[in-house]
Amino acid sequence: MIEPLKVLIVEDEALLAMELESLIEEAGHSVVGWATSSGEAVDMVDSTDADIAFVDIHLADGATGVEVAEHFRRSKRSMVVFMTANPKRIPDHFAGAIGVIAKPYTMNGLTSALRYLQEGVRRPPPESVLPAGFTLSPAFQTVWIPTAA
Amino acid sequence: MDWKRTSEPADAWHMTDDLHAEHGKGDPFAAAIRATRMSMIITDPRRPDNPIVFANDAFLRLTGYERQEVLGKNCRFLQGPETDRMAVEQVREAIASRSDISIDLLNYRKDGSTFWNALYISPVSNDKGELQFFFASQLDVSDRKLSEHRMSADKERFEKAVRERTKELEAALEAQTTLLHEVDHRVKNNLQMISSLIIMQRRTIKDEGIRQSLTTMLERIEALSTVHRRLYQSKDVSRFDVSDFARDLISDLLTASGRSEITSKLDLDPIVVSAEKATPVALMVNELVTNALKHAFKEKPDGSIAGSIGIKMSQPDGHLNIEVTDDGVGMADSNGDASFGMRLIKSLGRQLHADIEWRDAGPGTRVVIRMPNVPQQEGNVL
Ligand SMILES: Nc1ncnc2c1ncn2[C@@H]1O[C@H](COP(=O)(O)OP(=O)(O)OP(=O)(O)O)[C@@H](O)[C@H]1O
Ligand SMILES: [Mg+2]
């Protein structure tokens, strides 16, 4: 068994955050926090020991998800996966994030992405195939799928 | 009028003055020059400052001067403040180099009014090649200049209008694109919320039948979600790649079913349909694949459920062909009373003008769909 992930949810939509939390926990991982704005996210990442944060681009204080990712990268506290209905807003360099789960994801799409990320974070590179609806950043693509680069 | 070939003495033009006195008699050639409606002058470059030594009546009419006012003067009195210096310079150079020149000049009459002069100057030499005089004709082309000017003003106005309109349209397009992104964003978020609501509801339900219904409902909504995710991920929101969709769908449904013994066989040509067909095609394929997963495979004595589901898509002749096959139990035993799923497939089929056939694939079922589909052109909308 690979060690489960500690996840931070950065999402302003309560319903989606709730559902995401349930799915994450059903998959055997734990949720260490839920932030709705960039400020909350920054405070929370410093006070928790999250392995990975699911970050929406649109937050309560605007399109600040990319800034959150930049902060997480600098503080080296948590890895980031974007989760957005607007993947075109993500900069080409992905602000250091692993990749993006495009909304609307399917329940299975998310579960598969969680398994893939668990492998990637704990025992890189991941064994599973890249799930549909999950796009790796160019940087992680070269490391996790060396042949595709 | 070839002056170079005349063998007259150097001051042959004097004859024309003489002839003037006895109009109509003597040299008919000189008489013609006097009488023509074309303004003409002759200048003598051998005298200081190249003065006018002959001017016909047409020249005097055109410029408004008397003959004695112009004879002995250099032509520059025709120039004025608005005359193009560069053009004058060109004339000067042509005279200095004894070459002929044809040029439009803004000239001034005696009364100060202006006219556009299509000036033609050519040097005249004698047999020995010595320059004797310059012959110049003037044609009033003010009308042509005016219409040229109007045309270029019109053209400029028109181009300006086009530039402004283009800018407006570009701004409108950008506003529309922003709006489209915004709406798209909301549609996707809302689809995500609908799925989340169903999943959360399902968690609270103990009854297996109801749970199953909610799962079927979730599958249908997730098929729509996948359409939207794929549609707006592409550069062109007016085209939808059904083969990519099928790949996403089957991997999603298979892993979601948790039945790793069921494999998929895909034979998918890249096929694009217009956006309005995306949803019905996607829903139809979803119904067929979920039916195969749900009904085709029976548990074996050892408890395992094995089998294979195939999707084939091709577009050979202006028709999109979709085949969904399984190697399961077949439909011979099914009582044929179609429930919602079948009705949905058939209605979507009608919407798409599709022919749908369920065939016995021995073993299993082969569903063959054939619908008209115009091959979609490449294009970038977003
Ligand atoms: N691939 C298949 N293999 C075997 N039986 C099938 C297959 N597809 C459909 N059937 C039979 O046809 C019946 C009607 O299918 P239909 O999709 O209308 O209903 P359903 O799947 O039972 O319910 P739902 O309305 O939720 O789709 C099924 O109950 C099943 O018996
Ligand atoms: Mg069905």
Automatic annotation (TrEMBL), chain A:
Transmembrane segments: none annotated. Residues 6-118 form the Response regulatory domain. Pfam families: Response_reg (PF00072). Keywords: Phosphoprotein. The modification 4-aspartylphosphate is found at residue 56. InterPro entries: Bact_response_regulator, CheY-like_superfamily, Sig_transdc_resp-reg_receiver. The keyword Phosphoprotein applies. One of its GO terms (biological process) is phosphorelay signal transduction system. This is Response regulator. It comes from Mesorhizobium helmanticense.
TrEMBL record, chain B:
The keyword rRNA-binding does not apply. InterPro entries: HATPase_C_sf, HATPase_dom, His_kinase_dom, PAC, PAS, PAS-assoc_C, PAS-like_dom_sf, Sig_transdc_His_kin_sub2_dim/P. Residues 182-375 form the Histidine kinase domain. Keywords: Chromophore, Flavoprotein, FMN, Kinase, Transferase. Residues 25-98 form the PAS domain. Residues 99-153 form the PAC domain. This is Histidine kinase. NCBIfam families: sensory_box. Pfam families: HATPase_c, HisKA_2, PAS_9. Transmembrane segments: none annotated. One of its GO terms (molecular function) is kinase activity. It comes from the Bacteria. It comes from Mesorhizobium helmanticense.
